[in-house]
């Protein structure tokens, strides 16, 4: 997880394994993380078979 501040916007970038992205819908993760962190969230996968 990487947390950045760009101007007055806070952005968190999260990288998950391919296996995790298959188990839980990305939209559900995105919503939960934004609510918990109270900032913009970007989700990416590592593309390994995991």
Structural write-up:
- The chain has helices at residues 18-23, 26-37, and strands at 2-6, 9-16, 40-45.
- By secondary structure, the chain is of the alpha+beta class.
- It has one domain (2-45).
- A 3-stranded mixed sheet has the order 1-2-3.
- It starts with a strand and ends in a 5-residue tail after the last strand.
Looking at this protein, list some descriptive labels.
single chain, 50 residues, alpha+beta, three-stranded mixed β-sheet, 2 helices, 3 strands
List the topology elements.
Elements: E1 2-6, E2 9-16, H1 18-23, H2 26-37, E3 40-45
Parallel strand pairs: 2-3
Antiparallel strand pairs: 1-2
Strand order of the largest sheet: 1-2-3
Quickly count the domains.
1
Question: Unreliable runs, pLDDT <50, ≥5 residues?
Answer: none
Mean pLDDT: 86
Beta-strand segment tally: 3
The helix-and-strand class reads: alpha+beta
Number of helices: 2
How is the main sheet built?
Answer: 3 strands, mixed
Strand and helix order: EEHHE
Helix content range: 25-40%
Proportion of β residues? 35-45%
The global form is flat
Radius of gyration: 12 Å
Distance between the amino and carboxyl termini = 18 Å
């Amino acid at each position: 997880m990487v947390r950045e501040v760009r101007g007055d916007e806070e952005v968190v970038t999260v990288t998950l394994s391919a296996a995790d992205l298959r188990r839980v819908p990305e939209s559900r993760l995105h919503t939960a993380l934004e609510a918990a962190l109270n900032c913009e969230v970007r989700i990416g996968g590592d593309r390994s078979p995991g």
